[in-house]
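Shift notes (night). Ran DNA 5'-3' helicase while the centrifuge was going.
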Amino acid sequence: MSIHKPVDPGLFGGALRSVPQNLGCEHGLLGSVLVDSKKTLEAVEEILRPEHFSDPVNAQIYEKALLMYNEARKVDILTIIRHFEHPDELVWGKLNPREYLAKLMNAYVSPLVALDYAREIRDAAMRRELMTLCQQTSDLCSRPEDQRAEDIVEGHESALLHIAMGMSDSQPNVTFHEALCNALISAREAVERGSALAGLSWGYRSLDRLTNGLVGGNMYVIGARPAMGKTSIGLGIALRVASAGLRCLFWSGEMTAEQVGARGGAAKSSLNLRSVFSGRRWDVPEEAATGQQPELEGWQWNALQGACDEAQKLPLEIDTRGGLTVAQLRSRARRMKRSKRGLNAIVLDYVQLMRGSPRVRGRMRYEEMTEISNELKILAKELDVPVIVLAQLNRESEKRENKRPAMSDLRDTGALEQDADVIALIHREHYYIQKEASSGGLVKRDKETHDAFNVRCQEFQERLDAARGKGDVFVVKNRHGPEGRCRMLFDNETTWFRDAGEDMRSPAWGAGLEFA
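Came back to this:
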């Protein structure tokens, strides 16, 4: 039997409403705990917590019973009563513990229905949380001077996310036999669809070989220092996934949609990125240009228009909202996933530009990043899509002589290092050698001979030439496979990555997909 009592509706709540609760189920379940604790708690402990009880007395009794059960002690009215010999007056009031426990035993129900009772109790708790949240949101809406509407929506969505995370039943165990058979079925399905991968293709053959593709539910982190090309490879992955007819969501926290489009257009049309922004030729040497750079030729405009026409077919959507939270991302991604076209992958550029929920803002940045990382991993599993997270590395790699990044350079990003299924780090040696050359090049050392200095300069130039147009992606963590090095090509004019074996004249968006 459901019993309702009035609740404070908030400052601007209007009519009184009753609080969702089910004291009858609470009494019956606790009676079952006191009579047969083993069977009852074994059935309900994974989905029912003390805070789900509406009556604080019932919550306290359940909490003590759980504690004793997990310590392998017998739970009945004789063993639990000692915990309430001096009951908290704020909780128990005028209730007599012995009389109340006896009343619960009279409400006993069979352990066979305890799970149903537990679900009813938890459902009422979720409704109370939702009611409280809605009342708080309503109060905030009535105080326009306190917060902007966008901030209120963001806080509401974040709170909804935390409520939703506690709504589903615990996942049942799976036998090893079932797990192995399911893996075998997945392998056969991959063969039948003509793919050598467990998931989607990255669009880059070298990454596919090491990671076995992008698998739904996994979180992939691609880290790099500024100017290494993390946006370039992130957009490359998104465009190549979309070129296979798979719907992808690309979020950029530092660029406009037009700038994202220009990057992809430059790669597709093989034009300098500056040419796409300005409509002028930057492939003409400065000394050959009279006044300002000349306008693009007709064939170059046609190449850009061709890229624009082909982009119309791509199921790639761009989100450029600043300071995105996981709650906001989840809301949009869930709508896309539920739609007829579905959602196959998410690319985020880049994670440090995201914001944590209001409850962690203002704390240490490490805590905020840890919350973001944990919730992105949960989102990947919930939607069963790969989430590719771009991240900026700290400065430690630049203090090293070879500048090569390491997984430890992610230490300022909360739990990202732990939560990621795969971590890949971008390195372009040419960038650092060129930077050294432009800052004055090599300097003659003390007591170094002229010939030795010339040899060192020659070796420096050879390193510069050998590194030009090349890059590496180092897979430094791979939960389901080996680590290794992926050799890449990098076009500095179009800011585009390709596999080392790709023809530089091949289609920028679709290349590499034939290897899936």
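DSSP finds 20 helices and eleven strands in the chain. Confidence is low (pLDDT under 50) at residues 1-7, 512-516.
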